[in-house]
Amino acid sequence: MEKKMHLVPYLVEEVVQQANEIPQGVDLIQAPKMWSKGYTGKSVTIAVLDTGCDIEHPDLSHAITGGRNFTDDDGGNPSIYRDYNGHGTHVAGTIAAKENESGVVGVAPDVNLLILKVLAGKEGSGAYEWITNAINYAVDQKVDIITMSLGGPDKATSLHQAIKRAVKENILVVCAAGNNGDNNHQTSEFSYPAGYNEVISVGAINFERKSSYFTNSNNEIDLVAPGENILSSIPDGKYASYSGTSMAAPHVAGSLALIKNQTEDQFERKFSEPELYSQLIKRTLPLGHPNSLEGNGLVYLTTPDLLEEQARRLQVRTNRRMGWF
């Protein structure tokens, strides 16, 4: 089977044996402030389509509720979804690493993870058919969110149809935009499935909120998230800092779990996929980059609170000028 789908390229910046911190990216998007309100991703299931996962990692074992192998690794045994690359474990950690006073903490530390292995071997390559089958499986399992930090240069009808089916079933599909950027926002670089309109395409910024030099630019970018020097879990109980839009996408997937918790708690009803997408975009901050690089801006979970505070201060200043108090 021809393997045209690959990991979105990424850089391994540093590997460490131990960690004990909230990663900078998780803090930058304001996830801890959502936890303080009681929103931690509980009862939300995210399907991670990647290279598998280290299911025994101390930061992740609590979160994994199941998994399946769609590749030819381990003889194609569907019940073995080991991560021979490290990428899938890193993505899973950014989403769901547990707050346990050691290691790292993910954006949504109480979320459930369904691990769907669609990329094989140490190099992390896969077939469109594997990914299509995994998306359809995730839909059948009634997950809430699908995240994919992978891509290929070609469109595939079956893959696109599977994504459309997922969205129709009110499943949010998050994809890394790709790392083929040429540092020129006027040119377009597309990777699929991120290039499909139905998905949420995520570009990358650094901790100074500058656009990452490698991030793809095109008219399908929805928003950006931290994607440089992102500390997260890797196999064998270790940790590493990676860079790439692969690292930005799980920040958004985890954020959607928190947003789903918050909005459905406040409105006391289930939200549709378009409604949750709208709530996500309401929680972005424009950074001043061209739309082809940042879409609607940086995911910033407390944007509604920020705007409310700004409106309150403006009203106070207006009242004072009018002599009302």
TrEMBL record:
Gene3D superfamilies: Peptidase S8/S53 domain (3.40.50.200). PROSITE patterns: SUBTILASE, SUBTILASE_ASP, SUBTILASE_HIS, SUBTILASE_SER. GO terms for molecular function: serine-type endopeptidase activity. Coiled coil: none annotated. Signal peptide: none annotated. InterPro entries: Peptidase_S8/S53_dom, Peptidase_S8/S53_dom_sf, Peptidase_S8/S53_subtilisin, Peptidase_S8_Asp-AS, Peptidase_S8_His-AS, Peptidase_S8_Ser-AS, Peptidase_S8_subtilisin-rel, Subtilisin_Carlsberg-like. Keywords: Hydrolase, Protease, Serine protease. Pfam families: Peptidase_S8 (PF00082). Residues 41-297 form the Peptidase S8/S53 domain. Belongs to the peptidase S8 family. This is S8 family peptidase. It comes from Metabacillus arenae.
